[in-house]
Amino acid sequence: MVASAQTGDFAPPVEDERLYRIVDVLDEIAEETGKSIPQIALNWLLGRSTVSSVLIGARNEAQLRDNLGAAGWQLDEEQTRRLDEASRVTPPYPYYPYWNGQFAERNPVPV
């Protein structure tokens, strides 16, 4: 089954199981840290070297304040690893042969 929503019509489909897996890890880390799920997700994005900026679209002041609480702290290495693992996808061709670590010299890990 693929998740659908009004905005889902404008983006590639995402399998429900993948979404549930990611949300489960976000929920676990939120419990561990006392932070909200949106704060965990935004903090994880802010910590990724391949993300240059994060845009938030708060509907109200409370949501804006919660989102701003994603800054000024960091997930630990284990939490980051768990989110990376839960959200990992197989890259499309021609990149997928490199996904399992083959030919690492031709596909170095991003810094």
From TrEMBL:
InterPro entries: AKR_Detox_Biosynth (IPR050523), NAD(P)_OxRdtase_dom_sf (IPR036812), NADP_OxRdtase_dom (IPR023210). One of its GO terms (cellular component) is cytosol. This is NADP-dependent oxidoreductase domain-containing protein. Residues 18-87 form the NADP-dependent oxidoreductase domain. The lineage of its organism: Bacteria, Pseudomonadati, Pseudomonadota, Gammaproteobacteria, Oceanospirillales. Pfam families: Aldo_ket_red.
